[in-house]
Amino acid sequence: MSLGTAANVNAIFNDGSAVTNGGLDFHSQAYSGKLLGTSLKFSGVSYTLLGPGVLDGVRGATVVLPAGNFLHPQFVGRFRQRKSCEPDVYRDLH
Predict the structure, then answer these.
(1) What is the overall mean pLDDT for the chain?
(2) Which of 4, 76, 78, 86 is the most buried (most CB within 10 A)?
(3) Cβ atoms within 10 A of the Cβ of 52, count?
(4) Is the dihedral of CA 60, 29, 32, 19 positive or negative?
C-alpha cells in the first residue's frame, strides 16, 4: 500500500546530508538510508522502503486506506517520544 498524497516528510535520508522539511520530528531527524537499506522484515512480513531523500513518511496527516476487509493490518511507524532510531511495527489496530 502506498502512502500516496499523505506522505509529507523525509523519514529516510542520506547520511551526512541535511534533512529537509523537518524530518520525522520537526528537528531534522530521519532514519539512516545506509542503515535501513531498501526493505525490512518483521514477523514474516516484508516492507519495501522508498529510500533516502523522498517523501516517505507521514506527520500530522491522515492516511486513507483502500476499501476492503483487513484481518491484521500492519504498518511501520515511530513514536515521537522514543529515543531509539529503530522503527516500530504496529499490528492489529482498530
Answers:
(1) 76
(2) 78
(3) 20
(4) positive
Q: Are 85 and 31 in contact (CB under 8 A)?
A: yes
Task: Note the Cα 80 to chain centre separation in Å.
Answer: 12
Q: Which residues pair with 9 in a beta bridge?
A: 57
Which tens digit of pLDDT belongs to each residue from 40-85? 887 788 888 888 988 988 887 887 878 887 777 676 666 555 455 4
Residue of 10, 1, 3 whose CA lies nearest to 63:
3
- Please say whether the beta carbons of 36 and 52 come within 8 A: no
Cα 92 from chain centre: 17
